[in-house]
Design brief:
Blueprint lengths: L7 H8 L8 E4 L2 E4 L1 H11 L4 E4 L3 E2 L5 E9 L2 E8 L13 H18 L4 H4 L6 H7 L2 H13 L2 H9 L17 H17 L1
Antiparallel strand pairs: 1-2, 3-5, 4-5, 5-6
């Protein structure tokens, strides 16, 4: 079988489908993707990927902007990020440790521009592509009947338990918001009724 030609679209198609939800950490109301896991995942799919940094830009008030680029065989994405504290406020005159942390966060952000974990920045629990692929028609029917018969909190509790009898794998749905799932189910139902 011929190897797929590498394009921005093919890279996006691979990385945007990966569920990173179990590899994030919440801090001060923000979710962060583990840079070690992001690197491992990037290397699994694109071992030729390289990260580089341009010269930092320092503002008059002492804050510093970090610029990180990920290159995969000539396809690159650049992201920038100020050196920030735990409240996401720019730090004047940051030390080397603070700069190092910002460098890691900046290249993970560049990976998100390729699709890896972008849904974190959109404040979504899991990527749409993953949700659409993993929920079968039988699972949708079971969920529809739950929506019709059960209150919202009972469904949230049920999804939070992971595996249920007759469901192949709903563990990836653990942290998805009820309304988002309900809306997707209603759209899919309406589309099915139209055809």
């Amino acid at each position: 079988m011929a190897e797929q030609k590498l394009t921005y679209q093919s890279i996006w198609g691979t990385l945007s489908k990966i569920n990173v939800s179990e590899h994030t950490k919440a801090k001060q109301g923000f979710n962060y993707l583990s840079w070690t896991w992001a690197w491992q995942t990037l290397m699994t799919h694109y071992p030729q990927a390289r990260v580089s940094f341009r010269e930092e830009h320092e503002e008059r008030q002492g804050t510093v902007m970090i610029y990180a680029t990920i290159d995969i065989d000539g396809f690159s994405q650049e992201a920038w990020l100020p050196v920030m504290d735990h409240k996401n406020k720019a730090i004047p005159y940051p030390d080397q440790r603070q700069r190092s942390d910002a460098m890691q966060r900046a290249w993970v952000k560049a990976a998100a521009l390729f699709g890896l974990g972008l849904h974190i920045y959109q404040n979504e629990a899991i990527p749409d592509a993953l949700l659409n692929e993993e929920v079968s028609d039988d699972e949708l029917q079971m969920l529809r009947s739950l929506f019709d018969e059960t209150d919202e909190q009972a469904i949230i509790d049920w999804v939070g338990t992971g595996m249920q009898p007759g469901i192949k794998d709903l563990s990836s749905l653990k942290s998805i918001h009820f309304e988002g799932l309900k809306e997707k189910l209603e759209k899919r139902k309406a589309a099915a009724e139209e055809s």
